[in-house]
Amino acid sequence: MIKKGIRREIVLHYFLVVFMALLLVEVIFLLAIRTYYYDSVFSHIASHIGWADEYYQTFGLNDQSTSAMTRIMSYFELFGTELQVLSLDGQIISSSNKFDTDMVIRTSDVTQALSGETSRWVGKQQGTNQIVMAVSRTLKNAGENQYVLRYVTSLDKINDKLLNVTLLSILIGTAVLATVLAFSIGLANSIVKPINNIRAVSAQMAKGRFDVRVKGDYKYELGELASTLNYMAQEIVRSNQVKDDFISSISHELRTPLTSIKGWSETLNSGGYDPDETKIGMQIITKETDRLIGLVEEILDFAKLQQNEMKLVTGVVNLRELLQEIMLNLWAKAEKKGVLINLDSELKPMIYGDANRLKQVFLNLVDNAIKFSHEHGTVQLSFELDEKFVTVTVQDYGIGISEEHIKRVKDRFFQVNPVNGGTGLGLAITQQLVELHHGHLELESEFGQGTSVKVKLPLPSPELAALIPENDADVKSLPINSILPVHEGVREP
């Protein structure tokens, strides 16, 4: 007995399907064989009885004497059958077996024969209980019924043959079912065995063993399932490694400012320092505190995005003004590295969005562009407009990103160079914020040649665009060096 499980279900279903199909085929086959034999007997008797009727019409026997009945019996007798001549009320007038001549026959073949048809009846014969077929037809003279000619033949031999055919078909069907059962068990094993293997591996993974893998070259859906499970384990291992690297990195990032804050706090608390040193210490404490706040806010933002709790406060956003504000915010950092930030488009696209979150997006992108640019390099900002979208491009010509890292650079906690510091969440948060604005972020890079980041954001519909007030102030449309003071080490466009 097969124990409960997928194997049993597969075997049972295959067996039932084939069994029902075989049963249906055998029933139809046996009915067809039975019908064929019975129809053959009926056709043979019917053709003979038709010939008898023609003979009777030609040489009509008008009297009911014993000699007339004897002639009818001798002329119309058929080998292997009993011939009965009946009166119109079903009384046996004469019979070829000389028995039961006083019987009255009221079977359906007799009643139908009176209506002018050649009819048959299959059933048990009175007295012998044999299965017989009776074929009857009226003999007419001058258009009037005179006798009912009835042939009765035993079906025992035919039924014996049908029984043999039935037994043979049952034997063949049993052999087919046994073969199907063997094949279905083999098929079930070919399916269940890899499933059991996959189940065993997944159970080990559930216990934290992500170094195990599903082994075996499985086909179709099972192969895809095994590959997916192996890929999942690989990604979990990678995610755990990234998480460990993140914990190590964030611990270092938090320890550094905390050490500075603690050191200067203890120094200032000890007293005895002049005002200038005290001012420097307070500036360092403020700077490191801001750095800590930034790290914590970045982690909190990521947690909100992961839990779908980030809420946008939407309004009209002038992207040109937003980018120029970011350029002002990052001017000091760019000046230290001698990097020129250039906005070469006069377009002033207006969109609906959360200005603070969009500022966070472009601040991160431009900050990264400055960080990975060469000294005295250029960061290029531009707009492209089509019917439904505005595309903001942040292009740098710095160190670029290798093919190895380009596919993973958007992953959470991933850092191309951990030495540079940070949490590795910036680009992951940026992408999710862009997607919250129903936009799309594309990143293209070539190692040693630079990186291009495109942020595609939807423009407001014509109905909403008509509600946006026109802003005549064109201060932010001036070139960057007319807004920012020119310092030594910052190249003019």
From TrEMBL:
Q: Where is the Histidine kinase domain?
A: 249-461
EC numbers: 2.7.13.3
Q: Known Gene3D superfamilies for this protein?
A: 1.10.287.130, 6.10.340.10, Histidine kinase-like ATPase, C-terminal domain
Query: What SUPFAM superfamilies does the database record attribute to this sequence?
Result: ATPase domain of HSP90 chaperone/DNA topoisomerase II/histidine kinase (SSF55874), HAMP domain-like (SSF158472), Homodimeric domain of signal transducing histidine kinase (SSF47384)
Q: Which domain of life is it from?
A: Bacteria
List the record's Gene Ontology CC terms alphabetically. membrane raft; plasma membrane
Q: What is its main location?
A: membrane
Name of the protein described by the UniProt record: histidine kinase
